[in-house]
């Protein structure tokens, strides 16, 4: 069953908060990753998390800076590539 | 002051690297950040303001003390000066006195030089022992120097993880490293170099237009998230080419890349490293082209992230803190026959040092000189600033001659720029 954009965003948010973010960081879906200090290595981990958690493989040529800007754009991209 | 925390695993690893560098006659595991100041900068005024800076006073009075089970931080009453003003320096004096400035546990782990150069420019250079700071700590320290009102915590208030979990991860990582490592890795430093000379640096800067071309090449060669795999591939291929011209044909290159383990979304603390490492091994087949190199790096990166190896390695470093240094060093040497790695590489990303002024003086540019652990005797750092890429290549003569470095620099530029 397809996963909704909201569900992907919600789980990404939990994953980011528990694994990478300092306590009390306020996270919003549209916040640019760069603004909260999320580096490219962490973004790789987020893409891999989407693959493992939802079985959604984002094609390599879709891993553009526009698609990897924030949780919102990443969830949007993942949503478009659900089988 | 109340009791200070123990050193982290990566602090102790930096002490191990320092020990090796000192043994080779180097000034130690020291990072340096240089600021070019406006030409009418009054160095005495800057020095006076720096000496009033609370953060500088706190940091310069810190040192490493023995402790059980781990070494720990302690404050001491530093008797030596922290800031020195020089008259105009020649290039040779700059290399000898500033780029080789020693900071150590006995005299203090940080020092600031203020000087002019013969070309009329004025500079401030901070020499910081790597046991004090990881890169984010250095950035925070610089920001505290630039803004005297900024007040950041010295140490991380977060609690360390349970020891049992740490030791389980450490055991898993020891097995992984010992099963993969080998002393056959290629390295630039010549075998008989017991002592090495002064650090040397080449700065390779690209325009905005060239940077766009390089980023396009990175994408076309398979670098997707970030461009680092492409830059690493180009550095590795350049190293491989030098070795081949020498008639050496090592079966592979092996190198580690620092991985920031600090929590994100906050400015964070100053003191102590929170670093892990990613490890890469490129065989001759991988190094056939930029594309094959990038592909191999991508596969290895995913595999390591999937298996949580950065956390495992960080735990291994923490566990090794309890080990006497000679045994720790012996274990590290065992994995690489004492060569450590084929080269050093760090990607600082978008320049995080947002400093336009320092103690009332305008800052024109910032440059980071990395330490050059020997072996391998060659270290590379990439940073992007205002849309322009800059590579700092640090080396010692015992690893690369000037002729070899000339060839390598040209080749490296071409490799990055050529589609």
Key features of this structure:
heterodimer, A: mainly alpha, Non-ribosomal Peptide Synthetase Peptidyl Carrier Protein, Chain A, 3 helices, B: 419 residues, alpha+beta, Chloramphenicol Acetyltransferase, 2 domains, 23% strand
What is the H/E order of chain A?
HHH
The first-level CATH class name of chain A: Mainly Alpha
- Form type of chain A: globular
- In the CATH hierarchy, what is the superfamily of chain A? ACP-like
- Quaternary structure type: heterodimer
Can you tell me the CATH architecture of the largest domain in chain B? 2-Layer Sandwich
How would you characterize the largest beta sheet of chain A? none
Low-confidence runs of chain A:
none
Could you explain how this protein is built, in words?
The complex is a heterodimer of chains A (83) and B (419). Chain A contains 3 helices and no strands. Chain A has one domain: ACP-like (Non-ribosomal Peptide Synthetase Peptidyl Carrier Protein, Chain A), CATH 1.10.1200.10. Chain A has 83 residues and is an all-alpha fold. Chain A has helices at residues 5-19, 40-54, 71-80. Chain A is globular. Chain B is of the alpha+beta class and 419 residues long. Chain B folds into 2 domains: 9-146, Chloramphenicol acetyltransferase-like domain (Chloramphenicol Acetyltransferase), CATH 3.30.559.10; 163-348 and 373-417, Chloramphenicol Acetyltransferase (2-Layer Sandwich), CATH 3.30.559. Chain B has helices at residues 9-23, 43-52, 54-60, 91-98, 135-146, 163-180, 208-220, 228-245, 290-306, 309-320, 325-336, 402-417, and strands at residues 30-37, 62-65, 72-75, 83-89, 110-117, 122-129, 200-205, 252-260, 275-283, 344-350, 357-358, 361-369, 378-385, 388-395. In chain B, a hairpin with a 2-residue loop joins strand 13 (378-385) and strand 14. The model of chain B has no long low-confidence stretch (mean pLDDT 92). Chain A binds chain B through residues 20-23, 25, 27, 34, 36-45, 47-48, 60, 63, 68, and chain B through 158, 222, 224-226, 228, 259-260, 263-266, 268, 301-302, 305-306, 349-350.
